[in-house]
Amino acid sequence: MTTATLDPLGQSYKPSAVYFLDSDCVEYVKEDAFCIYDRIDSFLTLILDETQRNVVGFKLKGFKHVFDRHIKPRHPELQNCEFIDLVSMIETAFTDLGNQVFSIEEDERERAYMAARKLAANDNVKLAAAVLKKAA
Q1: 77-116 pLDDT, tens digit each
Q2: Which helix (H) or strand (E) holds 122?
Q3: Of the candidates 63, 68, 73, which has an alpha carbon nearest to the alpha carbon of residue 43?
Q4: pTM of structure
C-alpha cells in the first residue's frame, strides 16, 4: 500500500511506470520520498528508501532495445497490446540475458531481480505501450 503525498502544486503523487525516451529507460517509484539508487548491472537499478533496506522502485535501462530485441520476437501478441506488464519484462530479461552473463555465484544480483519482480507484481506495474511506439 502506498501513501499519497502532495507535490508542491498540491497534487497527490500517483506511482506509475514512466518511459524516458532520451535515456531509453523505464522507471517506477512507488513513493514520493528521498531515494537511493543502487545500480545492479547494465539493465537493472534498484531504488531504495532512505534506510537502504526497502525497495521502493526500479529502473530498467536500455528498455526499448531489450524489448525490441529479446521480448517482441518471442511474444508477437505484444505488437498490439495497450500495456506492457513489467513483471514479465523483468522475468524475461533475467532469464534470457541472465543465462548469458550471470553466474550461479551471483546471489546478490538474483535477489535484486527478484526484489524488482516482486515490487512490479505487488504493485501491478504496467507501462503504456503507446510510449514505445512513439520511440520508434
Answers
A1: 777 778 888 887 788 777 766 665 555 456 788 889 999 9
A2: helix 107-122
A3: 63
A4: 0.79
Task: Say if residues 72 and 79 touch (Cβ distance below 8 Å).
Answer: yes
CA dist 22 and 135 (Å) reads: 9
* pLDDT for 3: 47
25 with 17: CB under 8 angstroms?
A: no
Tell whether the torsion through CA atoms of 21, 25, 30 and 35 is positive or negative.
negative
CA 27, 46, 31, 127 torsion: positive or negative? positive
Cβ-contact 17, 125 below 8 angstroms? yes
* Domain layout of the chain by residue ranges: 18-131
